Each structure stands twice: as structure tokens, then as C-alpha cells.
Amino acid sequence: MPPRPLPAPIHARVAGHFGELVQGRLGPSGPVALVTLPCPVLAVHAAWRPGPGFGLWQGAHPVLGRGDLARLFALLGAGAARGRWRLHTQMPPGGGAGASTAARLAVLRCLAGGALPPATEAAFCLALEGASDPLMLPAPGQVLWAPREGRIIAPLPALPTIEVIGGFAGPGLRTDALDTRFADIADLVAGLHAGPDRADLGRIASESARRNHALRGAPDPAPLIAAGREMGALGVAVAHTGTAQALLFAPGTVPDAAAGTLRALGLTHITAFRSGGKT
């Protein structure tokens, strides 16, 4: 009798982000809020082939341990979700590019067939991590997001299309879900609600990076800001709880030397992409 064919693997892909345009408190004692910078070219790919036993392969960037998966399975009531799991993560963990949230979402979508609404996915991520990026949303860059509450605070207008090139400054930093020590960004958020042009967007993102570095001592954006000024960049965007740092440009204006300049500043995993949705 011929062996029974193995079931086809179930796949899911979840794109990450590249830090935030802004992150901080809405007023001195307000909630932590952010506007993410979607990055369509960095993603987590999950593949699950149901079957007997359990196996997990994660490649060069392991993100989830077996304990993480067990907690996710328990929340779903999925038991051990037997079979073979493969997680391929294109961004370094702890870099502020959404690896943790994207990995959990990719596993969740394999198990649930992608049928869960974004609010439910956000609730799962919040229960598992205590904080969440808005990667489950269809347009994650068009909302003001409460990462410690896993909810949309307010919608935002589509932001101008920009070209982004950046990298990661040093080893990853694990996000502390209880950390609320951020700068006040209420005025910067008001600027985003007003529908900024590209120049304003670059100024707002750079100011959020400066304020939070002054308060938190995160990777210093000053060298990147200076290099960007020489190359005609609009400004910088950084991961406020990670190591991602990027330059923002008007479409078609990224210099050929940009990647080499970033490497000379010590950034790794150089990544270029286009983000935003308004011309």
C-alpha cells in the first residue's frame, strides 16, 4: 500500500515595519502612542505542515521559543499544533522592525486560516507580549496606535509617499511592555493629523527621534541626521525601542552613495523600500 501523501503546508506572510515616525506620550501623563513606518520588504514567513510530532526550524533569526508557541497554542485552544513549523524572519530580532509581532501573527494565521479580525489578532498579541505593533491592520501606517493597549487611538490621513533607506545600529533591544518613559509628542501627532507634506513629515519624525534619544539614551540619531542633511534627506525615522535607523527621501532622490554612507556609520542589514500612500 503506497504511503499516504503528506498534507500541503499552510503558509502565512506578515510584513514588518522599520521603527516609527513618532512614538511617545500624548501629553505628560497620557498613553504611549506611535505611528509606525510600514516596511513591505521585511517580513516573517511561516509554514506549517500538520502531522505527528512537533518540530520547529527558524533559520538565522530565531524569534519564538517553544514556550512562546505553547502559550499561543493554549490561547487558541490548539493543543500542541502538531507537525513541522518553519519560521523565516528577514529582520533581526530586537531591532524595532516588528519581528516578534509579525512572527506571532504569522503562526496565528496559519492556525486560524487568516480568518480572525484585526482586533482579535491584536488582543492575542497583547496577551502574549504585553505590547503590540499594528501589523495586523490593512494600513498600519494610517493610524495612531496604542502599543501597550493593542488598539487604534485615531485614524490618520494617508501620509506622503517616501523612499526609505536604513539599517540597524548594534545588537537588538528587547521591548519592555511596562516601559512608559517616552517624550511628550502631542504636538507632533497634531502635525500628522493635519496631513503634512514630505518636508513636514521629515521634520516631525526627526524631532521624535531627537526627543526620545535625549530622554532614553537610545542609539544617537545625530550622526545619521548630519549625513542625511548632506545627502538631501527629508529627515530620519528610528525605532524608539530598538536599533533601526533610517533616512527619509522624496521619491527618486536617494543618492547612489546612501547605502555605503550608512555602512560607514556602522549600520547593518541595509534595507531600502517605499512607504506611505499619498503622492
From TrEMBL:
<dbReference type="GO" id="GO:0016301">
    <property type="term" value="F:kinase activity"/>
</dbReference>
<keyword id="KW-0418">Kinase</keyword>
<protein>
    <submittedName>
        <fullName>Threonine kinase</fullName>
    </submittedName>
</protein>
<keyword id="KW-0808">Transferase</keyword>
